[in-house]
Specification:
single chain, 213 residues, mainly alpha, two-stranded antiparallel sheet
Length: 213
């Protein structure tokens, strides 16, 4: 840019241009790629480059199809995609819990008999509404009703035998949540307002103990 010849005009221009009181940092001076290059163009170029890199990384994380520099399209690995599909199908078929072989329970417990007495699930499964697990009833809970005979069921005296020996009823657990899942029974009841039957089926009609998930 040619310098103005008039001293007065030079003074006006100097007042309009902010003056630097120190020399540019070495890193800034070395960053210049060419004489006369506008610094704003370099900043814009870096910003656009960062945005492109971030978009590419985000697409890669989401499993999107990537375009290689030569114009060819690189899809996710067929093997990896097949593995993910297989895992998804298994989870849809079995839910998020782990299934085990059919269990042998210590008592021939009937949910139907207890439901006929207008007992609610939380009467026996005490932590179903506010705990991470619904819990199985302990002997002390059973003895609230079965300290005396309630009928002629040959299984009922076994409950009192466990109580007299001060041994817990060895119920066999039939379902566990997989290791990477955090599950809270209370959250599903209180916050999600799910009914027991939505996950467990019609337990009120079950006359045999649960032996598998």
């Amino acid at each position: 840019m040619p310098q103005p010849r008039q001293p007065e005009l030079q003074a006006v221009l100097l007042l309009q241009v902010p003056q630097r009181d120190h020399a540019p940092e070495p890193a800034q001076a070395e960053d210049r790629r060419g004489a006369g290059e506008d610094p704003r163009l370099r900043v814009r170029g870096r910003v656009h480059m960062r945005r492109r890199v971030r978009r590419r990384l985000r697409r890669r994380a989401e499993g999107a199809v990537m375009r290689k520099p030569g114009g060819r399209i690189r899809a996710p690995s067929i093997t990896a995609a097949s593995g993910l599909l297989a895992c998804s199908l298994v989870m849809l078929a079995t839910g998020c819990g782990e299934s085990y072989a059919e269990a042998v329970q210590p008592l021939r417990f009937s949910h139907a008999v207890h439901a006929e007495e207008d007992m609610a699930c939380v009467d026996c499964h005490l932590r179903a509404e506010d705990g991470p697990y619904a819990t199985t009833p302990g002997v002390a809970t059973c003895m609230l009703c079965h300290e005396e005979a309630q009928g002629e069921d040959p299984e009922e005296p076994k409950v009192r035998e466990y109580a007299e020996s001060e041994q817990p009823i060895p119920w066999v657990r039939v379902n566990r949540v997989v290791g990477h899942v955090y599950f809270s029974h209370g959250v599903h009841v209180k916050l999600a307002r799910l009914d027991c039957a939505q996950c467990h089926g019609d337990m009120a009609a079950l006359e045999q103990p649960v032996t598998r998930s």
